[in-house]
Amino acid sequence: MTLVVTPPDDLDVALLDAVRDWLPGRRWFPAKGTQAELALLGGLALADDVRVLLVRAKAGSIDAVLQVPLVLAPATGGDDASDATGPGSTDVVGHVDGRAVLDGAAHPAFVAAWLAAADGPGAQVDPATARAVSGEQSNTSVVLRTAPDAPAPAAILKVLRAVAAGENPDVDVPRRLVDVGSADVPAPLAWLQARWPDASGATVEGYLGAMSAFVPQAQDGFELACDVARRGEPFDDLARDLGAVVAGVHADLVRAFGTDGSTAPEDGPEQVAAAVANRFAWAVSAVPQLTRFAPGVEAVVAQVRALPVAPPRQRVHGDLHLGQVLRSGARWFVTDFEGEPLAPLAARTRPDLALRDVAGMLRSLDYVAAVAGLTGDAAQSWTDAARAALLDGYARAAVAQPVDADADGRAVLLRALELDKTLYEAVYESRNRPTWLPIPLAGLERLAG
Q: Against a cut of 0.85, is the pTM above it?
């Protein structure tokens, strides 16, 4: 069913006041280090003591709608989690009318109410087993078991923190992929949609969250690759398998969504070339030291412009790197099709070249080598071998290579897309992790030096 968010009542107002100082400290809060204006768009009563607030957070260019699930519980008078009674109590984040206000995303009462309202095939999970995954940033993920003594989780519930009108790629794309027979993504089990008033007062509809099958004994792809690199072992076989899986997902995306006919093959190279040139201009304005790469960037742009055609655009992952894949047993799974959470929906769902996902994976390998502590020839040898293996696996598994772009043309496009990604990384690292800036700079030396 699609739930309807109601105008805020007195309880909603009191709840927002109770959590106003707590919100900016959350990892998923979008306006870090600045004073954000918070305004209630509405509330949703999932159960008697379970309330979901939709809060508009506005600061500068940031304008996001946040989902804040809260649970009300009896309080005994203190300020920590022990003040809340009942099973599954989580952090106390405030008090209202003599009751403790709990962060609800992983609370059994919220999970039970969420499951009762959600659509989809569902799963036999016990809300009392809910446990939040540590380290989450843009969303909150909660693992669930079939019973407290179950040996492994059965499902994972993703509570979306920044909600948006329209489709959510992280829900819709896996659903469509499973419909066409893909086994390379965790199967969707349940999803919850709602209608709410946007900033202008118009009613919009979107997703609040989704639950998918849990991938047992899974390792994060980036952490796995770092462990392999630290041991001085090659990543080649794993990279080759991963390349094949990415190719399979791309083929399934074409079956599920088709290809985009709005860009003629002969116009594709010019679009890529212009995008790289614009990205470089933007990057230089933010990081002036990148100016020295201008001749190399111009050479890559000229090579792209000289191509007669480009492959057709299609639905892609959009933010693919090793942190978005899981390894379980002898299999890879691709996850997190949401794209950049704060990017406009149109940008996250726009058809693109499948090679952009491949470029993201290649860049991720450079980060692995650096984080694992490889330097000099050792780093170069490890990444070269892993890159070659990933590309080999992708090429061998591709169901149908594009007939309108030869292998040399695809290599030129891939270099351009990797350059585009590396320029973005240089700006990001300069602003957020200056000590990591040498990683994209090394990539720029290779791609445009």
A: no
